[in-house]
């Protein structure tokens, strides 16, 4: 779960360059001044329909439409003739009513769940006036079907993107080798000036296979136009479809009813502390519009006999009264530990009560239980079977791309200096989880404040405006914060970069050259291996008589790569023997 997926970046207004290219030319001159427009936030427009629903005027329900003289922006979804993921077709009269020109970008909004996307509007004389034609990819991003109603909003200006991150979906690249960018993304975006929106999924056909990609990050945030000078990144771990679909199941239980299958009752989120498990659960509740009921240890546990079980029953009863609802149990390992390892009767009774309550949930009750823990193996095994916690999702430590996205979220309201390089900071935050990155940004801001404390009069109730305007977090502040912060995942592990170089080891030139090719090149140039479809070596075995310099070579190559180094060997065996 990328995560990708915590905060809605709709704060920034879009402006600057206008969508338009040789492929989708405009009728009006590009220099024509037009008012700037920002993408409307779904939360501000939820429930505010531009018109009222009136009676149907025809008995033919296949073609009947609502009277929409006051709502020309609400159109019926039809099948596309042109299978382009970035284009929607409208009747010429509809484009005139909406004041759209050929090649204009439009914001399409679905009927629920605040789904929207951006496409290029083209006039099509074969399209009926109340309809809008779009292909399957656009309908999937909007969560609509043929015959549903979508709203169309004009967007005057969309910025050209500086860079976008578009990784593939994992189950669509099985068996595919080679560079995905050269084969799929480069031809797809070449001179097309396609608008993309964060969260959109699109299909690209190349050769004999088709690959799905998902937009998880754009700069400018939220949406942009992929121009020839836009940097496109598809590196990093592929998007796991199953994690996204497991959370989408919460809002669509009728999909299971139609095929006679019981929907899942529970989802277990596990991962290190601070990785965002609680935040993900709240985001799912917000996206699905479900009632959110949070349970933690202090609210349940009681010294009085039977009161702990009663509190748990009340929580489930309250959730069933406010369906659809999500019951979130934080730190579930402290509420439902393994019964054979607990010494108190209260814990055993709570585990038994939780098992009974989860079994008592009806399959179609529209109530789902989400548990979160950083110790999944400490939970009672009876909870981790089908019918209770059906799915288990690992919320791991973010990679470099994930760290960069989290840093941008936490710094979007910070006043940053021009020399701040968040991409470099993300490379130096290996092992940091979301909470660690938030603490890093806070520490960098505190460093900025400490520098100004000497010029601030603490006895004065107000602060000089010049001092406030001169304050900005610099790259040096982030470097200082990195030196004082420790990642949660590495707190119990001591690692260091050795200070041994090649000059400390004489001879063995052939061995050094082979180590450079085997170890250093994959670390410093991973993109070249990916380009040629090569997998780097996973390990190197040194063998030779004692005293020939095997550990010295290992430390030297670690220093060349600036990689963390751990020499365990007999040290591990020593600790194991003494512990036994």
Automatic annotation (TrEMBL):
Alphabetical keyword list: ATP-binding, Cell cycle, Cell division, Nucleotide-binding
One Gene Ontology CC term in the entry: nucleus
Segments for region (Disordered): 17-46
Residue intervals passing through the bilayer: none
The protein's name in its UniProt record: Cell division cycle protein 48
Tagged with keyword Transmembrane: no
Segments forming domain AAA+ ATPase: 263-399
Record domain CDC48: where: 175-241
GO molecular function, one term: polyubiquitin modification-dependent protein binding
PANTHER family for this protein: AAA-FAMILY ATPASE, CELL DIVISION CONTROL PROTEIN 48 HOMOLOG E
Organism: Musa troglodytarum
Domain CDC48 N-terminal subdomain as annotated: residue spans: 74-158
Pfam families linked to this entry: AAA, AAA_lid_3, CDC48_2, CDC48_N
Family, as annotated: Belongs to the AAA ATPase family.
Recorded superkingdom: Eukaryota
One Gene Ontology term from the biological process aspect of the record: mitotic spindle disassembly
Family matches, as InterPro entries: AAA+_ATPase (IPR003593), AAA_ATPase_domain (IPR050168), AAA_lid_3 (IPR041569), Asp_de-COase-like_dom_sf (IPR009010), ATPase_AAA_core (IPR003959), ATPase_AAA_CS (IPR003960), Cdc48_dom2 (IPR004201), CDC48_domain_2-like_sf (IPR029067)
Entry annotated with the keyword Phosphoprotein: no
